[in-house]
Amino acid sequence: MSYTLYWATSSGAFVVEAVLELAGVPFDKVLVDLDNDEHTKDEFKGINPMKQVPALKLPDGTIMTESAAICLYLAETHPESKLFPLSGVARAKATRVLFYLASNVYETILRLSYPGRYTASSDASDVKAVQTGAAARLVDLMSVTEGFVVGPYLLGKELSFLDIYLFMLLGWYPKPEETLAKFPKQKVLFETVGKIPLIVKLKETYKM
Hints:
Glutathione S-transferase Yfyf (Class Pi), Chain A, domain 2; alpha+beta; 208 residues; Glutaredoxin
């Protein structure tokens, strides 16, 4: 049996598919049409009650959600891919960066992109305030992220899935090239990862 990836364009499935490809494991894909609210239907809610993509069905039928957790699982179960340090201080440092990106940067981008989700008010000024606050916080977060980048990749000379994860997040920023001009190490990482043939292909697939 193979993995099954439930995906949608402009979603966190981008990094999961990249890891599946780089790990060289067979997988099938099921497109979840967000525009037609397929993620809210009972069939998909049975897969992920949070009504979010990505979701990954493992060969034994277990369902995993949360892109960071999925990528970590795949890296651990396919260590030959060398997409994440698996022991010692290197793993501790990489895990810190992963949790930071997932809990801070990803969440703040969601606030910037979907501010209405983060306020009970329907007043346009309140929604705008959420968005303005998120934009300011992103600048602070990018400054912190810049300090994590060893160069040219996050952990040094070798590509890890953290680099693809960060590439995805940076690609969701408004005007990423303009923003990255202030953060040279992230700019190099973004440009380097963006030239990888697999990433070029996935950018088109995911409409990034």
